[in-house]
Amino acid sequence: MDRLDAMRLFVRLVECGSFSAVGREEGIGQPAVSKQIAALERHLGAQLVLRNSRNVVITEAGQAFYESAKQLIDDFDAVESSVGDRQQSPRGLVRVSTAPGHGRLCVTPLLAGFFQRYPQVSVEVSVSERPVDLLAEGIDIAIRHGRLLDSTLTARKWSDTDFVLAASPAYLAAHGTPATLDDLDRHTCIVFARGRERYPWRFGTGAETTSYLPRGALLTGDAEHVRAAVLCGLGIAQAPRWLLAEEIRNGQAQVLLPALQPERLPLNIVYAAGRRVPMRVRVLIDYLLAQ
Predict the structure, then answer these.
(1) d(CA 101, CA 96)
(2) Which one of 3.20.20.140, 3.40.50.300, 3.40.50.1980, 1.10.10.10 gives the CATH number of domain 1-81?
(3) pLDDT beyond 60 at 85
């Protein structure tokens, strides 16, 4: 048994949650993956996973081993990447976490050029509206919107995000165009919400900031549903400009009350602090920042 290869398989098993998924990824059969993990468990003298017909459950010993093994593999890959041809030819998988809408509209379109430049690097895009725990979920980098509170992360600023109030021309033709914040009370709003908590809209900057709690028939916690609702003429929404940038350019969406738009919020690429960043991760971060 090659212990490093077995550790790599175990790390991917934790991250994929399936022996068959790891087998497909590595181009080997599921029994071969299971055999390697079993040999690793015998070597360590500890049970790392609980197996059944439906899923894989990581034991407490397995979770502790995963965190150490991932750090060891990252360090090993970084050492390899610093010498020889691998300095110009990074390889391996980079796991990226981002919000669903931002991933589809702003991250995935950039990857064609990256893969041309680094053909031996693969990227797994994991989407979630919630801020994930990078270490616990095996994420290499995450794209975070707004001000950062987690001091355990290293952040590199990618850009700033403008927020706009927008609606479709069809909606405005039917219901009129608001000229003041008070006019919004007479309009249907598309509400971004999690559970029963509606997110307020913010207008103005600095001491002049005003909050407005939107009300409407549609509530959603997904940015792309906000986008679809605007384009379908269901109402007015406040959203990051990137969500509707193409539609604003081609006239499918119209920006409202532009003088009252809120301050820009930072968009950051973050990764765990205090860890050596593997070459495959570093080149992706640098590539995204250059776009």
Answers:
(1) 14
(2) 1.10.10.10
(3) no
